Every structure is written in structure tokens, then in C-alpha cells.
């Protein structure tokens, strides 16, 4: 049964394209039986906006999310059928512990169908926006990729235990800007690997799903997220 639970639209996300209705129509045309809408939860501090969002305010992000939920619920009613399920969810941001509280409150307030649990920041610095931001994060970790990876999976663990998201997004996103010649692209050291196994066990214990995210191919990684060492586990 073709399904996807991680999607974005240009209507409500600066790094995507198209209207939300277009995303639904395209999924139906491709034969998907289940589509999950999962725009990002809004960030609540001005310093956490990405460069592509500098023309916006924190209030703008909040208003955009409110409009997203209203639009998504309308589409859900419109496309209700026995052959196609449309779910309304959101993708989390974990920047600090307060952002976990914020995500939980948004879920409760809007009665979201599910969450995609993702981590895009380490030490409050974006790791997936561009190489410059990743390098800034790496410097904050003392230049150690191993420390950056360990911090990433520790942040993921806090997000998983606090929110118990139904879907785990791009499990090993921390590998995105690692040089392809670096062995960490293929093999993780024991100090990181034990964190990976811990996080997998948490998700399995509460019955969550791990997405296979093909965006990694477009970004030049050898496999979809997660890379094959984690996928085999």
C-alpha cells in the first residue's frame, strides 16, 4: 500500500513548492492510499528562523501554522473516501526543551492525527540548512563529528521520549553534510552506535514507525535516510 507521512507544500513552507491541495492531488494521481500532511511546527524565537524566513516574524509563523491546520482539515473532509486516507499532522522541531513543550501543546490544541518526530538542530544550530551552518555547529562541538553525532542522537532521544511521535523523520540527518569520503558516512563508532540502538529500542517499544526518506538521494547521500547500517538494524 503506497503511503507517505512526511510532506510539505510551498503554501506553508519556504523550502517546498506548490499549494497544499496540489500535494494531495499529486499523491492521489501517483496511487498513494495514505497521505500525511506534516508542515513544520512554528518556532517561537526570532533567532531560530532560517535565512529563507528572515522576512517573517515569529507571529507570522504561528499564523501560518493556524492556516495550515484549517486548510488541511478542509482538504481532509473534501477527500474522505474508502480508497484514500488523508491525515493531518506536523513535523516537530527540537531546538531546546521548551520547544518540546511547545510541540506537545500544539498537538493537543489542534488534535493533530500524528507527529513526525524530527531533529534539525544540534546545540541550537541548524545542521541541515547549508554547509556553513553545519560547519558552525561542528565548531561548537569542538570540531568533532563524533561529538556532533552523539549530541544529535541525544537530542533525538529527548524528543522521542517526550513526544513519542508516530513517525521518526530522517533518522540520521546528522550525516547530511559529512564529507562522503569520511568513514562516518558508512560506519558509526561505538559511542554513537550505542545511542542509535538506544533510540531504535525506544521507538520500537512504543510502536512508532521509521520513515524511509528519499530526500537523502537528492542531497547526494548513498542511501535514503536512514543509511544502510541503521536500516539493517
Automatic annotation (TrEMBL):
Per UniProt, residues of the PHP domain are: 5-214
The record's annotation in Gene3D superfamilies points to: Metal-dependent hydrolases
Short name of any one Pfam family annotated for the protein:
PHP
- Cited CDD domains: PHP_HisPPase_Hisj_like (cd12110)
**Pathway stated in the Swiss-Prot or TrEMBL entry:** Amino-acid biosynthesis; L-histidine biosynthesis; L-histidine from 5-phospho-alpha-D-ribose 1-diphosphate: step 8/9
- So what does this thing catalyse? L-histidinol phosphate + H2O = L-histidinol + phosphate
Can you say what this protein is called?
Histidinol-phosphatase
Q: Which Gene Ontology cellular-component terms appear in the entry? A: cytoplasm
Enumerate the GO terms in the molecular function aspect: histidinol-phosphatase activity
Q: Which residues form a coiled coil?
A: none
Keyword Cell membrane assigned to the entry: answer is no
GO terms, biological process: L-histidine biosynthetic process
User: What residue ranges are annotated as transmembrane?
Assistant: none
EC number assigned by the record: 3.1.3.15
Q: What class of enzyme is it?
A: hydrolase
Q: Which UniProt keywords apply?
A: Amino-acid biosynthesis, Histidine biosynthesis, Hydrolase
Q: Which family does it belong to?
A: Belongs to the PHP hydrolase family. HisK subfamily.
Q: What InterPro entries does the entry give?
A: Histidinol_P_phosphatase_HisJ, PHP_dom, Pol/histidinol_Pase-like
Amino acid at each position: 500500500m503506497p503511503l507517505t507521512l512526511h510532506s510539505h507544500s510551498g503554501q506553508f513552507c519556504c523550502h517546498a513548492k506548490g499549494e497544499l491541495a496540489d500535494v494531495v492531488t499529486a499523491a492521489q494521481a501517483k496511487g498513494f492510499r495514505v497521505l500525511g500532511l506534516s508542515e513544520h511546527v512554528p518556532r517561537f524565537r526570532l533567532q531560530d528562523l532560517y535565512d529563507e524566513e528572515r522576512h517573517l516574524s515569529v507571529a507570522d509563523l504561528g499564523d501560518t501554522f493556524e492556516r495550515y491546520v484549517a486548510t488541511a482539515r478542509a482538504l481532509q473532509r473534501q477527500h474522505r473516501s474508502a480508497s484514500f486516507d488523508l491525515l493531518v499532522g506536523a513535523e516537530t522541531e527540537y531546538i531546546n526543551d521548551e520547544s518540546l513543550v511547545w510541540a506537545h501543546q500544539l498537538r493537543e490544541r489542534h488534535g493533530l492525527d500524528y507527529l513526525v518526530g524530527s531533529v534539525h538542530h544540534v546545540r541550537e544550530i541548524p545542521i541541515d540548512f547549508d554547509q556553513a551552518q553545519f560547519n558552525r555547529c561542528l565548531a561548537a562541538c569542538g570540531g568533532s563529528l563524533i561529538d556532533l553525532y552523539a549530541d544529535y542522537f541525544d537530542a533525538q532521544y529527548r524528543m522521542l521520549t517526550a513526544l513519542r511521535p508516530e513517525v521518526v523523520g530522517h533518522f540520521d540527518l546528522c550525516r547530511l553534510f559529512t564529507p562522503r569520503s569520511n568513514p562516518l558516512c558508512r560506519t558509526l563508532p561505538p559511542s554513537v552506535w550505542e545511542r542509535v540502538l538506544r533510540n531504535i529500542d525506544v521507538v520500537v517499544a512504543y510502536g512508532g514507525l521509521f520513515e524511509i526518506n528519499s530526500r537523502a538521494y537528492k542531497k547526494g547521500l548513498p542511501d535514503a535516510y536512514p543509511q544502510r547500517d541503521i536500516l539493517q538494524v
